[in-house]
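Box 3.1 A note on notation
Throughout this textbook, protein chains are presented in two layers. The first layer is the amino acid sequence; the second is a token string describing backbone geometry. Keep the layers aligned when reading.
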Amino acid sequence: MLFLDLSKAFDTVDHGIIKIKLKALGVKESSIQWFVSYLTGRTQYTQVDGVLSEPAPTNSGVPQGSILGPLLFVCYINDLPKFCGNLLPFIYADDTALLIRNEDITFITEELQNGLNIVTTWFQANKLGLNLSKTKSILFTSRRSPFRNFSLDIRSNDKQIESTDTFKYLGVTLDKHLTFETHAENIVKKVNQRTRILWKVRNFITEDLAKYLYLTLVQPLFTYVDYIYDGCSQTIGHKLQVAQNSALRAVKNCKRDYSATLLHNQLEIEELSEFRKKSSIKMVYKGFNGLGPDILNKLFTPYKPSRSLRSENQKLILPPKVNTAFATNNFAYRGCFYWNDLSNDLKNSASLSILKNSLKPFKSLK
């Protein structure tokens, strides 16, 4: 997998090219002229020791910190996936990753190299620059794979792309074995830092305010895309749970030996394993009902019995075939079983918001 970093991506958007791309996307001419008016006529200057330079016209870039800036950039790179060859692109604004899956290391290397060459040509044609010092490659393997210590040899302009064991992408630290151990360690570190702060102010605030601070400053660290690592090892899950319990004791202002079960019940905050399970169910609901992106919607195959059975009306999902025990830890596999165990009432929720309300803490899923 390649993680691409663009140099000053938002500042290098060419105004002439974005006009052409907006037209190709079907935007009306009157609207295009409005965008052109929004982008052009701007100037820039520098200040050194209180002395201002003469204003210079800005011929490229979209205003950062605005709503339209990211939208225009997305329109600018919207056609990039057409030029990725056999690679699967993941694009979120200027964060771009390219993935290829195969058991043949030579095939992986060649496809990533060919794909990078094509993408680099596209970047050059669209006046975008690739920051090679921050562009990384990573090879995902099992711990037992004979290639577990293999480094990909991918190059751009005769410079080798650095191969790494971990990479933080969209807030999630991915490791080469997909154990999410490093990601969990980062979460625990941040949680412990905020828990210490909570302890310092705890005697000066009420329990309700302490709980509010936990829910706004600590809980999001645990729940951000937590369904991805729901299948993590018991060791990692335990470390995360210990960190949550410690934070809840600060909320409750109680000693270390205070019962964890009482903590969760009294504060009405579930254990992290329940949070991850319910997050998985919500994502399965989105995918099963076609409410997510194609890559999510295509993960789940409705179960269709060969003959008429009672189960045909239960909205069951056919679990994906897996070849290893490790593969059973992935979201698509575990999510299917969570979903199939739900009551029909929950599966038939009229909307995602209704389902979320039904999945509130300590509510039964049966």
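The mean pLDDT is 92. The two ends are 40 Å apart (CA to CA).
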